[in-house]
Amino acid sequence: MVKLSMFAGYLVLLAGDVSLNLGTSMQLESEASKCAFCSKILRKKQLCLACMSCKRFFHLSCLGDGFEVTRFCHQCLENDSGAEETSESGEPFIPLKLREVVKLHGLKIVHQNIQSLSDKIDQLRLLLHGLHAGIQLITLSESWLKPDRNDSEYEILGYTLFRKDRKGNNGGVAVYARNDLVVTRRDDLEVESVEGLWLEITMPKSRDFLVGSFYRPDHSSNYYDEDFMAKLNCILDTATADGKEILLFGDFNCCFMSAHRSNSECKQLKTLFKSLNFKQLINSPTRISRDSKSFIDLIAVNYPQNICDSGVVLTNLSDHELVYCVCKINWRKAPAHLKTFRNYANYNPCDFWRDLEGVT
Predict the structure, then answer these.
(1) Alpha-carbon distances of 194 from 138, 197, 225, 232, rounded to whole Å
(2) What domains sit in the chain, N to C, each tagged with a CATH number?
């Protein structure tokens, strides 16, 4: 009987499922269950999240509500901001402005006319890695992807790719959504002849909202569509019927600078935004050449009060600048209110009026 039990014990050990040093195992488990910020125990009923960079766990209350959105701790942010913006390994230039944007509380969305994602995919991967995946949505115009190319060729760790390719040369739009977002493709809002892609984002403790990414070819393109504005009007009419918050990103090839106000298509787009209560957020050039300046990469929203920051950042990914916005998210719970009610179980009208007379 003793030999049989010893033989069974050896089989269990060979299976690799038993630790020979139980004390060390328990100690490591105990250390892992402590908050890396306050060193207190992480209990089951507490909100706890892991930093996407250092993989340590924190109490949500220790780092504030924004940690649930950014998913990386303050220490990783500080280490990243102190790093040089260029490195010997050839990593791309990461602007200080973009580093500061990533630190803001809220949902970060950027748009870039990238002019061939195939050629810039490595640069984009390094940029997002340098920012510790602090941007939740990246919308791209002029992706130039071929319909027969597989998504795996353009994979970015931690993100899901959505794309709408042009059935021809160049053009096309794409969106990278971080994996912790709940995203639904809204095919019902997309039109075959319009280079536009729609996503619905579902956030906890916040209302769902729509994100549209567009590219409108200019007059010199063989794919120029004279009816683009009318089609966009119909699309936005359908999208706004849901009553959801909408954010539009894209290269519309309509310059919003004051010198181009006489342009008929620019007037149409401005009138369209005004009629549907959209506000255009970008007010500085997004494409600068030796001879001209223009801002044709736009962000338009129908709830501007929910935008806490927006602007233009130089990234050197193409001859277009990157535009961004930061959306407020209502993560904070409403404070508890203590309410008192009179107990009518033993209600006596005479005593009730007598008490009131005593108070007066």
Answers:
(1) 20, 9, 9, 8
(2) 36-82 (3.30.40), 95-327 (3.60.10.10)
In the chain, DSSP assigns E strands to 48-50, 57-59, 107-113, 137-141, 159-164, 173-178, 182-185, 196-202, 209-215, 245-251, 279-280, 287-288, 293-294, 297-301, 307-313, 322-327
Tell me the pLDDT tens digit for each residue of 18-41: 444 333 333 333 445 788 878 788
Q: In which residue are the tokens 């390994």 written?
A: 89
Name which of 100, 108, 107 is nearest 81 in CA terms: 100
Any residues with CB less than 8 A from the CB of 72 and at least 6 apart, and which?
Answer: 51, 52, 53, 54, 132, 133, 134
Both tokens of 55, joined, read 């993989």
Closest CA to 315 of 328, 327, 305, 324: 324
At which residue do the structure tokens 């050896």 appear? Answer: 10
- pLDDT score of 132 more than 80: yes
Q: What is the pLDDT of residues 244-298, one digit of tens each?
A: 999 999 999 998 886 656 688 899 999 999 999 999 999 999 998 777 888 899 9
Check: CB of residue 130 under 8 Å from CB of residue 90: no
Q: How far apart are alpha carbons 326 and 207 in whole angstroms?
A: 16
**pTM > 0.85: yes or no:** no
Q: How far apart are CA 196 and CA 245, in angstroms?
A: 17
Report d(CA 142, CA 215) in Å as an integer: 7
Residue with tokens 């193409």: 318
pLDDT band at 306 (very low <50, low <70, confident <90, very high): very high
Q: Write out the two tokens for 165.
A: 């390719």
**213 close to 173: Cβ distance less than 8 angstroms:** yes
Q: 191 with 231: CB under 8 angstroms?
A: yes
Q: How far apart are CA 241 and CA 113, in angstroms?
A: 29
Element (H, E) at 100: helix 96-103
With 0-12 / 13-18 / 19 or more C-beta atoms within 10 angstroms meaning exposed / middle / buried, residue 122 is exposed
Say if residues 57 and 50 touch (Cβ distance below 8 Å).
yes
CB neighbour class for 143 (10 Å; exposed up to 12, middle 13-18, buried from 19): buried
Residue listed under structure tokens 């039109």:
191
